[in-house]
Amino acid sequence: MNPSLNPKRTVAELKELRALTGDEHGAQRVAFTPMWTKTRAWLQKKLETLPVESHTDAAGNLWTTLRGESEKSLLIGGHMDSVPNGGWLDGCLNVLAGVEILRRIHSQYNRRPPITVRLVDWADEEGARFGKSLFGSSACSGNLDVNEARGLQDKHGISLPDALREIGVDFERVKDSSQELKNAAAYLELHIEQGPVLLDLGLPLGAVLGTFGVERHAITFHGQAAHSGSTPMNRRKDAFLAAAKMSFEIYKIAERSGNGVCTIGACTTKPGIVTSVVEECRITLDQRHLDPVALAKMLAEAKTAGEKFAREGSVKVSWERLWQIAPRPFNGELIALCEEAIRETCGQTHRLPSGPLHDAAEVAAAGIPTVMMFVQSLHGISHNKIEDTKEDHLELCVTAFDKLAGKTMQWIQSRQS
Amino acid sequence: MNPSLNPKRTVAELKELRALTGDEHGAQRVAFTPMWTKTRAWLQKKLETLPVESHTDAAGNLWTTLRGESEKSLLIGGHMDSVPNGGWLDGCLNVLAGVEILRRIHSQYNRRPPITVRLVDWADEEGARFGKSLFGSSACSGNLDVNEARGLQDKHGISLPDALREIGVDFERVKDSSQELKNAAAYLELHIEQGPVLLDLGLPLGAVLGTFGVERHAITFHGQAAHSGSTPMNRRKDAFLAAAKMSFEIYKIAERSGNGVCTIGACTTKPGIVTSVVEECRITLDQRHLDPVALAKMLAEAKTAGEKFAREGSVKVSWERLWQIAPRPFNGELIALCEEAIRETCGQTHRLPSGPLHDAAEVAAAGIPTVMMFVQSLHGISHNKIEDTKEDHLELCVTAFDKLAGKTMQWIQSRQS
Prior knowledge:
2 copies of one chain form a homodimer.
Chain A: H1 7-21, E1 22-23, E2 26-27, H2 34-47, E3 53-56, E4 62-66, E5 70-78, H3 92-108, E6 115-121, H4 135-141, H5 146-150, H6 160-166, E7 184-192, H7 197-201, E8 205-211, E9 213-222, H8 239-256, E10 261-270, E11 280-289, H9 292-312, E12 316-325, E13 328-329, H10 332-346, E14 351-354, H11 359-365, E15 370-375, H12 391-416
Parallel strand pairs in A: 5-6, 5-7, 7-15, 8-14
Antiparallel strand pairs in A: 1-2, 3-4, 4-6, 8-13, 8-15, 9-11, 9-12, 10-11
Helix pairs in contact in A: 1-3, 1-12, 3-12, 4-11, 8-9, 10-12
C-alpha cells in the first residue's frame, strides 16, 4: 500500500456521510433533492485542501480535476446519489475512494502528476425520481434519448427539465457534457457487487468483465374468463397456467446460456378474481447476458417457449419490448490490470460480469477504455438499508483500487509514448 | 305438455324483461337499485290476473302464494336480480317459468290445487353490490353471518343495512324470514347451466346433483427480493416460481379428484418490478367438489404441494382461508323425478353437479328437499351480455320444469298420506 493512502479515512468518511444523509430507513441522497445538494457541498469540502479545479458540466455531473503534465486523463467515476432508503455504500464508495486516491497522487508527485486525474460524480445514476437510470453518464456518452427524457415526470408531476432547471442545468444542453470525455484515456469505477458471487466464493474483490446486455419484455397471455365452478378443467383457456409455465422455463434458458440470468419480476391477472379462470396474464421478463449472441438466443428461446405454452393451453401470447441495452464489455488490458491490482492486494481474484448497470457502461459505450472493480457485498443485497460490506474489505478495496489507478496511469503513459 | 302451459309466452316475457331492464352492455337489474324495484313491479303486474297473495318477507324476498287445500307447500325459486352487464336469463328464467307454472296450475285445478304452491324471488342472489351472494336465501335459511353482513359496504360506502332500509327492510330482523319455510315440502329451481357440460354433450337439459362445496384460500409464498441482474439463478428465493408450480399441480389434483375443479384466479407479486426477483407472490385458490371427503382431500393435496414447492425453492408458504361452504347434495328422490321429467320432455338426461352456488343450496341446507334443473348455456358463459340459450331449449326447459313441478306436487301429496 502506498504509505500516504489512508483507506481507514475513506471508511470514516463513508460513516460521516451516512450520519449526515441517512436516517433509520437508510440513505436518502436522491438526485436533484436538497439532500443531494447538501451531499455534494460536503464532498467539495473534502476536496478543498487539494489543488484541484471543480465544476459542474452541462448535465449536472460534478468534475474534480487534478491537472497533470499531460492533458490525457484518467477518469475515476461514481455517484453520490442513492435510491430512497438506500444503502450506505452504493455509489459513494467509489467517489470517496477516488477522493483518497487524489490525495495519494497529490502527495506522491511534486506539484503535478504525469497525467491528469479526474474524479466525476455522475448526476442521477439511480434514476430513483424519474425512473430512468444513468442520466448524467448517458448524457455525457451521447446515448441519452433526449425526447424520452424530456417527458419524464416524478410522482408529483414535476418534469425532469424543470427539476434540472432548479439546480441550474438547461435540459436542452445536457449533451454538451460530452466534451468532458475529450481527453479521457481510461475510466475506472469501484462498486459494491450488489450480488452474492464474491460472498459465495469467499473473495473480497473481483474484476468486472463488463455490464450485461438486457432484453426486457412484457409477455401477455390471452385466454378466456370462465366461472371457476362451472367450467370443467379440460375446457379452460387458462392464461395463468401458460404464464406460469414460463417460470421454470426461464431457469432452463438461463442455465443453457452459461452465465445469463432471466427474471420474471411481475405478474398481473385479469379479471383477477377468485371465482374466474384468468383471462389475461401479463408477466415481465428481464434477460441479461454479457454476450450479445447468447442474449439474442435467450430471447429467441423464451419466445419459442411462450408460443409452445400458449398452444398447449389454447391461449394466445403477445410480446412487448420494454427496454433493451447491448452488453458493454470492458477493456481487456484494463481487466488484466485490475486482476493484477487485486492479486497484489489480497492474493486471489475472480472475473465476473456485472448484472446491474453502472455509469461505466455508458463510458465504455463512448469508446473510453473502461474497467470496474467489485468488492464483496454482505447478504448479496443492495438498494436497502441492510446493504453492507465488511470494513476490512472496504479498506482492501480502496488499496486495490488505488493500485489499479497507479497501474492505469502507467498504462496511459505507455500508450502515449 | 299440459295444454294450458305456454312456454312461448315465457320466452316472450323474458324478451320483454330484457328490453325493459337491459342496455347495450347487458342486464342491469342489480339488487336494491331502482331498476331492481322496477323489475319487481313488472313481475307483480304479470301475476295480478292470478288469485295469489304477494308479500315481501323480513329479508326482502318476494313471495307469491297460490293457496292450496293443504298448507304443505311446493316452493319454486329464482332471482330477478342480475350482475351489472349481466345475461338476460340468469335468475329470471326460473322466476318467469314459475309464473307460467302458477298459471298452468291455476287453470288446471278448479279453485284450489291440492297443495300450496309458492314462487319466491330471492333478494340479492348475485351479491354484485355488496360482494356477498345469496343474501335473501341465506337470511331465510338462517346461514347468513349477520355480523359480517352488517359491515358490508358498496363502492360508494353505503352499508348493506342502509341500502336495505331504503327498500323497507330492517337489517336486524332479516332472519325472521325463516318462518317462510315453515310448511315448505320441496324446493325446485330451474337455471341456465352457466357452463359447457350440456353443450358439449349436445343435451338441452340436466338434473343437478347438488352444489359444490367450496374451499377458497389465499396462498402466499414468501421469498426474497434480489436484483435481477446481480443474483445468480441458483441463489434465488423466487416466490413466483413456487406459486407458478401450483398452477399445473391444481390440474392434477382436480383430475385425481374425479369431478372436482380447482382455479387460481388471481396472482399478485411484490415488489412486482421488472428488476427484482419476486419476494412475495399471493395467489387465490378456489376448489370445489360435490363430495366433502374429496373436497377435503383436494385441499390437503394442495397444501402438501405448496409445502413441497416452497421447500424446493427455499421460500416459505402461508395459507389464509377466504371462505368455505359445504357441498349441498340435493334430494335423491327429487333428482329422480327431475330426470323423469327431462326424459319425458326430450328423451335423454344427464346428471351433473353445479359449480356455481344457487339459492337452492341455502334451501337444501335448511333441510327442505331440493332439486335443480339445468338448461344448456351457449358458449358455456354467463355473467356477460353474450350469455344465451337456444329458444327451443328455453321452451323445452319450461315444459320439463312444469312436469317436475307436477311430479313433485304428487310426491308431496304421497308423503302426506
